[in-house]
Amino acid sequence: MSQYFLPGVLSCVLLAIGVLGQTFVDDPPPDYFKRSSLDDCVQRFHYNTSQPFTSVHNGDPVAPGEYKAFASIGWTRSTSRVDYLCGGTLITLSYVLTAAHCSVDGENKRPDTVRLGDVDLSTNVGDQNAQQISIKRFVRHPEYKAARAYHDIALIELEKAADPSDFVCRACLWTLPDIGYDRLWDSDRQILDRI
């Protein structure tokens, strides 16, 4: 056992030195918040400190355009008010990834709308940036059971494609065939260099 202890500790120390030795920029590129494509997904995400904060979620300020892929999932009530009870992620311009338990509310009613680009649902501030799109179809994982926590994933197909803008952009998804978890110490550094 002790023969593995020292190499393990040494590996952890070297990894920590490597991570701590990295440099990060404090300021994003000038046009960073005007992105509407996935070409710059490898860059770090920053919030735009020049814009006023319009909402707070769990104590974290949210700036317009900061969470471009966030989708608010809503239920339109008989009073025309929309209750946003779930969230999701825009993964293509026509699909939102969410939880299967969001397929119905407490009254067993299905959601009917998705709101994109709005960081403060409680006010009209920034509403000109928002896109309200009807839900065409809600597809739960076939093995999802409400009484269990497994397979709690679903896709929402939008009635029409979202319009990419400074405030709405699909999420950056991993596209390479390997994710590197089992190849971190491989002699082939191609994957490690991309993580």
From TrEMBL:
It comes from the Eukaryota. Its main location: secreted. One of its GO terms (molecular function) is serine-type endopeptidase activity. One of its GO terms (biological process) is innate immune response. Residues 56-195 form the Peptidase S1 domain. Keywords: Disulfide bond, Glycoprotein, Immunity, Innate immunity, Secreted, Signal. Pfam families: Trypsin. InterPro entries: CLIP_Serine_Protease, Peptidase_S1_PA, Peptidase_S1_PA_chymotrypsin, Peptidase_S1A, Trypsin_dom, TRYPSIN_HIS. GO terms for cellular component: extracellular region. Residues 1-21 form the signal peptide. It is found in: Secreted. Belongs to the peptidase S1 family. CLIP subfamily. This is Anionic trypsin-2. It comes from Culex quinquefasciatus. The lineage of its organism: Eukaryota, Metazoa, Ecdysozoa, Arthropoda, Hexapoda.
